[in-house]
Amino acid sequence: MAVVLITGGNRGIGAACVRWFLANGDQVATTYRSADPPPTPEGFAADHFLAVRCDVTDAAQVESAFATIESTWGPVKVLVANAGITRDGLMLRMSEDAFTEVIDANLTGSFRVAKRALAKMLRLHTGRIVFLSSVSAYVGLPGQANYAASKAGLVGMARAIAREVGSRQITVNVVAPGLVATDMTSALGDERIAQMTGQVPLGRIGSADDIAGVVGFLASAAAGYITGAVVPVDGGLGMGL
Fold first, then answer.
1. Alpha-carbon distances, residue 95 vs 98, 102, 106, 145, 217 (angstroms)
2. Are 174 and 231 a contacting pair, CB within 8 Å?
3. In whole angstroms, what is the distance from residue 185 CA to residue 179 CA?
4. Which among 76, 81, 84, 116 has the fewest CB atoms less than 10 Å away?
């Protein structure tokens, strides 16, 4: 049993990851930004789930969230940096605010939580960090210059950190989902989703559980010799890239 923190775990891929780790018997904390905390997932014990309000773009809130988790259960041993936003728009119409907001939430926010988690992991000589990137990082989708930059940045950051902390038996990996059925994907509209699905060799849109299973594997003992890896879970959409 490990103490797990999943940022943005109140819906979509994050919520699927919460369920995966709870089913594994772990103590799972998640961050949320909404007015009300997410309830304990149905079928799981309330004393194994903790929701802490935290905006990863605010360093003080990140510190407070970790302090709450540590006072409740102890140090975080598995971090899943999942929280992210989109502010899509064609390049010539994209404002600087739209660009910087996405970078701050998706890339810098992941840096903030990883740095805080590593402070304890380094002392423990153990830990797992998994960053949630995207197929957008290496395929490049129109209207997502900001999102693609943030998700590609996670790959470089993860590999740099992996080399820094590997000697302490801490692994740092990246999962790159493709087209997945989430609220964020629904916003693209049925026509765009159908076009993108047509480019997926497996011929279907993925589920959040497809992603959670791979995240869980990378956090497990079975993946103890994997670090600095980028694992695409995209139905073959970006193969060879």
1. 5, 11, 17, 11, 38
2. yes
3. 7
4. 116
> Cα–Cα distance between 193 and 127 in angstroms, integer?
37
Distance CA 39, CA 65 (A): 17
Give 24's contacts (C-beta < 8 A, 6+ positions apart).
216
Task: Identify the pLDDT of residue 212.
Answer: 98
The answer to whether the beta carbons of residues 55 and 34 sit under 8 Å apart is no
Per the listing, tokens 């989703």 go with 193
> In what order do the strands lie in the sheet containing 3-6?
49-53, 27-32, 3-6, 78-81, 127-132, 170-177, 230-233
Active-site residue identified among 32, 138, 147, 225: 147
Q: Which domains does the chain have, with CATH numbers?
A: 3-233 (3.40.50.720)
**Which H/E stretch holds residue 170?**
strand 170-177
57 burial type by CB count under 10 A (0-12 exposed, 13-18 middle, 19+ buried): middle
Q: Are 211 and 175 in contact (CB under 8 A)?
A: yes
Mean pLDDT computed over every residue of the chain: 95
Which H or E run contains 145? helix 145-165
Q: Please report, for residues 60, 137, 149, 150, 163, the alpha-carbon distance to residue 156 in angstroms, rounded to integers and kept in the order given.
A: 25, 11, 11, 10, 11
Pairwise CA distance, residues 167 & 89, whole Å:
42
End-to-end CA gap in the chain: 36
Q: Is 225 part of the annotated catalytic residue set?
A: no
The span from the CA of 153 to the CA of 137, in Å, is: 8
